[in-house]
Amino acid sequence: MGKYNWDAVTRNHIIQAINKFLIENQKCPEAKSTFLLYEGKKLPAKHIRGMAYKEAFQVEVPKSEYSGGSENSP
After folding, report:
1. Nearest Cα residue to 48 out of 73, 71, 64, 67
2. Which end of the chain is more exposed for a tag (fewer CB within 10 A), N or C?
3. What's the average pLDDT block by block, 10 residues per block, for the chain (74 residues)?
4. Are the C-beta atoms of 52 and 16 separated by less than 8 Å?
5. C-alpha 29 chain-centroid distance
6. Paired strand residues for 36
7. Burial class (CB in 10 A: 0-12, 13-18, 19+), 4
8. CB count, 10 Å around CB of 53?
9. Model pLDDT, residue 70
10. Which stretches within 1-74 are classed as H helix?
């Protein structure tokens, strides 16, 4: 397993992150190729993924340490 436990991030954490993102109208870098479609909205997958990790563990992961999709196993 890698440095971060992405497998423990649940659908509920992702939904919480999406709701927080939409309510707070957060600014983030524009997604280049990976998007999350949720209720007709096109959202930045990598940003939401990081927010979901923070919802799960109360730890912010630097964007340079993960991608918008699943990580490759070593």
Report:
1. 67
2. C
3. 85 96 84 88 92 96 80 44
4. yes
5. 13
6. 43
7. middle
8. 22
9. 60
10. 11-24, 45-57
